[in-house]
Amino acid sequence: MAPHDPASDPGDPGDADALDAPGASALVEFAVDLTSQEVLRRAQVMAALGPDWDPVEVLLGEEAAYDLLYSGLDARQQRLYEDLVAAGVLPARGDGSAAA
C-alpha cells in the first residue's frame, strides 16, 4: 500500500519498503520565494522608523552609552573588564582599557 493510503498500518513491517514499490509516491521539492514578502517587511520597518531616523546618530549614541557603561570602574572591576576583553567576551575599546 502507498504511504498516503489511510488504510496502511504504519506498524506493519511490510510497509517499510512502500516507497520503493512501483507507483509509490515520491518526495517532491517544495520551494517558496519570499523575496516580495521580505521587501514588504523591510519597507514596513523603514516606515515604522520614520523619516527622522539617523543610523549614524544611533551608532554614535550606542558608543557613548558603552563609554558611560565602562567609565568609573574601581580596580577590581577594571581587572574583570580587562580579563573579559582578553578572553574575547567584550570587544577592545579605545586604548584597551575602560575609562577611569
Explain what you see.
By secondary structure, the protein is mainly alpha-helical. The protein is built from three helices and no strands. Mean pLDDT is 80; it is low at 96-100.
Calculate Rg over CA atoms. 30 Å
The coarse silhouette is elongated
Low-confidence stretches: 96-100
Question: What fraction, in percent, of the residue positions are helical?
Answer: 40-55%
- Could you report the average pLDDT, rounded to the nearest whole number? 80
Beta-strand portion reads: under 5%
Give the distance, in angstroms, between the N- and C-terminal Cα atoms: 76 Å
Q: What are the secondary-structure elements, in order, as H or E?
A: HHH
State the secondary-structure class. mainly alpha
Biggest pleated sheet: none
Tell how many strands the DSSP assignment holds.
0
Alpha plus pi helix count: 3
Give the structure's gist in a few sentences.
By secondary structure, the protein is an all-alpha fold. It is built from three helices and no strands.
Task: Note the topology.
Blueprint: H1 35-49, H2 55-69, H3 75-86
Keyphrases for this structure?
100 residues; 0% strand; elongated; disordered C terminus; single chain; mainly alpha
